[in-house]
Amino acid sequence: MKIPLLDLAAQHNPIEKEIRTAIDRVLKSQYFILGPEVKGLENRIADYCGAQYAVGASSGTDALIMALMALEIGPGDEVITTPYTFFATASAIARVGARPVFVDIDPKTYNINPALISQAKTAQTKAIIPVHLYGQCADIEPILRWAKSEKIFVIEDAAQAIGAEYKDGQKAGSMGDLGCFSFFPSKNLGAMGDGGMVCANDKGLYEKLLAMRVHGSKTKYFHQWLGGNFRLDALQAAIVNVKLDSLNSWTKARQNNAAQYEALLKQTNLIAEGKVQLPLPVFPDRVFGHIYNQFVLRVENRDALRGFLTKAEIGTEIYYPLPLHLQECFKFLGYNQGDFPESEKAAQETLALPIYPGLSIQMQEYVVSKISKFYQ
Ligand SMILES: *Cc1c(COP(=O)(O)O)cnc(C)c1O
């Protein structure tokens, strides 16, 4: 049996006709940049995420840059975030000229540890970017409380977490000042190319985001700020709009697959023996707030297990092999090995398994049987 890490065709095939209809509509209109397709998607995403406003962007990375620009964060400013995330979270901070300041993660959830954030604050701290990693909300309540008392902005990096729910059902991306999403094809809601979105609840910030997206201009050819070309195009918006109809059922399928993996792994001795650790929810009573963009195990002898599964034609991935404070391009920040031990440990010990909607029970049984075989 051959099992890829992700099978996008399994999601695409049943909705191919609707997607082609949407593409044809855009082709007929010859309206490619922003316009009604983008506006329509913005309204639906704001609604879906429980935010007042949403602004389409050219990618998740650009969504983060746009958000930072709208908050006027730049040279001389510091932004706190996690070193255990996709590169773009921290590169966006550096690219607007601000300084990323890292804080270690909670080893159970892999999300930023709220207990450590206050010691990272300086007079220059302007914002914090918690990441809802793998599709599970960071423990954001203490972060929001702290940020409010310190007058610091909160930008949620919800690129992996569209539809994920926090404690009381609040949706990822709607809780901070701004929330950033990505429609990269491998995200739970993916475009057929690049795309992203920023959610906002404040009207002033919303209007500033609209301006930042078109070179900092509210009136054409008059520029109040230095923005960028961060526009989402109509084709991608039309495609994402069709896929949004399936998102809840895809999320359910991912959650069912996660529950199935847990049941299968619990039938082995692997968890009791400490060889394998399941992904742990921040709030045990709200397991289903997790949307499982990735299903990530912490395992003994990770690299050898991965090699074994690759030989068995089971796709896996390491998110992420090198924490951001140790990346070459961030040497200038002056961090060293050992500065963020939990992030470094996670980078050594975690492995993502296939979790996509369309993964069958037989496939999951096969994956778990191979993992068992490896540890025998
Ligand atoms: C994917 C991702 C991004 C960037 O999104 P792109 O659309 O690829 O630019 C940012 N942050 C996180 C956590 C991501 O997973």
Secondary structure elements and pairings:
Layout: H1 8-12, H2 16-29, H3 35-49, E1 53-57, H4 60-70, E2 78-81, H5 88-95, E3 99-102, E4 125-129, H6 140-150, E5 153-157, E6 178-182, E7 196-200, H7 203-213, E8 217-219, E9 222-223, H8 234-244, H9 247-266, E10 276-277, E11 295-299, H10 302-311, H11 341-349, E12 350-353, H12 361-375
Parallel strand pairs: 2-3, 2-4, 4-5, 5-6
Antiparallel strand pairs: 1-7, 6-7, 8-9, 10-11, 11-12
Overview of the structural elements:
- The chain is of the alpha/beta class.
- It folds into two domains: 8-103 and 110-244, Type I PLP-dependent aspartate aminotransferase-like (Major domain) (Aspartate Aminotransferase, domain 2); 247-374, Aspartate Aminotransferase, domain 1 (Alpha-Beta Complex).
- It is built from twelve helices and twelve strands.
- The strands form three sheets. The protein has a seven-stranded mixed β-sheet with strand order 1-7-6-5-4-2-3, with helices on both faces. The chain has a three-stranded antiparallel β-sheet with strand order 10-11-12. Strands 8-9 form a two-stranded antiparallel ribbon.
- The model has no long low-confidence stretch (mean pLDDT 96).
- Residues 59-61, 85-86, 88-89, 131, 157, 159-160, 182, 184, 194, 196 line the site of pyridoxal-5'-phosphate.
